[in-house]
Amino acid sequence: MTVEIQPLDDRRAEPLEIWPKCGYLPVMQQLIRFAAFALAALLVVLLAAPVSAQEKAEGQSKADYLAWLSRDAGARAQVLSFKAFLAAGEVDDVVPTWQLVRTASAWRDCGGPRFEVAPVDEWVHISETLEFIKAEVEPVIGDVQPVSGFRNAELNQCAGGARASAHRHFYALDLVPVDEDVTRTALIRDVCRIHQSSGREFGIGLGFYTGMRFHLDSKGYRKWGANGSGATSPCVTGNYA
Fold first, then answer.
1. Max intra-chain CA distance, the chain
2. Residues with Cβ < 8 Å from 133, sequence gap 6 or more?
3. pLDDT tens digits for range 26-65
């Protein structure tokens, strides 16, 4: 008996026929363009990360703060008292309390605490600084975020602070603007104008660092630049870059 074998269709001869109506090539071109765009965006983020890291409180997030409180009943009691003090002075709404108890950005390298409540007799100092921020700074540049506040003597020395640093007695906050669209030029220009117009009245010290980080304290009217000298303050030189 003879069996006749019918030839099978050879679909391999037309490789694109499996997408006969989908426009295969245009779709693949769009996917390639999208992948290239995503890669470029990722590179921008990665390249910007080192600068951003300098201005953020690494290891001092709200989650870290809550974990610290959960481990330390004494810290919880201190924070509650501190919050009550700020509320009595009507400055509890200026910045989140958990950001006020951040210590130094170099806490990890120095083996110091990442959060610490200042001694009770120092609280009045930061209250005066917060009054200035509330009345003069935030209405102009928007909300600010403290990245460094009180530093005990050991941590302050290790972090490179002056022996008489305003951070030692909780006069000072290092701040960054919350609005990421604020430029360094605009920030320095606006804060210098604020300091010139009302800094003396409030007894405010003003210093600038690299990036968007700046220092405010209520220890006394003065200003300085990156090397600690008043002559190099951008408020004096007019160099806002």
1. 114
2. 94, 95, 144, 173, 175, 216
3. 544 554 454 444 434 333 333 333 334 345 678 999 999 9
Q: How confident is the model at residue 179 (pLDDT cuts 50, 70, 90)?
A: very high
CA angle in degrees (0–180, nearest 5) for 122-90-155: 30
Look up residue 184 and give its two tokens: 């360094």
Per-residue pLDDT tens over the stretch 4-15: 444 444 444 444
For every residue of 71-92, DSSP letters joined together read H-HHHHHHHHHHHHHHHHTT-T
Report the candidate in 97, 102, 113, 108 with the shortest Cα–Cα distance to residue 60: 102
Total residues found in the chain within this entry: 241
Question: What is the distance between the alpha carbons of residues 43 and 24, in angstroms, rounded to a whole number?
Answer: 29
Q: What is the pLDDT of residue 40?
A: 40
Q: Which residue has the tokens 């295969």?
A: 24
Rounded CA separation 80/78 (Å): 5
Cα distance from N-terminal residue to C-terminal residue, the chain: 95
Half-sphere exposure of 170 (CA within 13 A, CB side): 20
